[in-house]
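Journal club prep — side note

Before the paper discussion, L.F. wants everyone to see what a predicted structure for a comparable chain looks like in token form. Sequence:
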Amino acid sequence: QVQLVESGGGLVQAGGSLRLSCAASGRTFSWYAMGWFRQAPGEEREFITTITYTGGSTYYADSVKGRFTISRDYAKETVYLQMNSLKPEDTGMYFCSMGDNWGQGTQVTVSS
């Protein structure tokens, strides 16, 4: 059974940074691309970034390009999202994905 557990969310002022983590278990971590999505209240879940199963390629939504960085640690079976220069519009619930599986999310709130 796949389990994805996100952590690291919180309240931060605009311009600040947060680092999210997503610990994966239940499947062979190195076989899967991993992704981060976010959902603001009243809005649909949107793609933020993904990293290939090899870790060799990453892709970002235009809204976060240059500010967010995704990475993965195979030994810890964890994917990270480093978020810098945060903006109020980055506020939302952040979810990690592995295949068609999702974590429970971690809340990020950016105050202006």
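L.F.'s comment for the group: The chain has a mean pLDDT of 97. Keep this in mind when we get to the figures.
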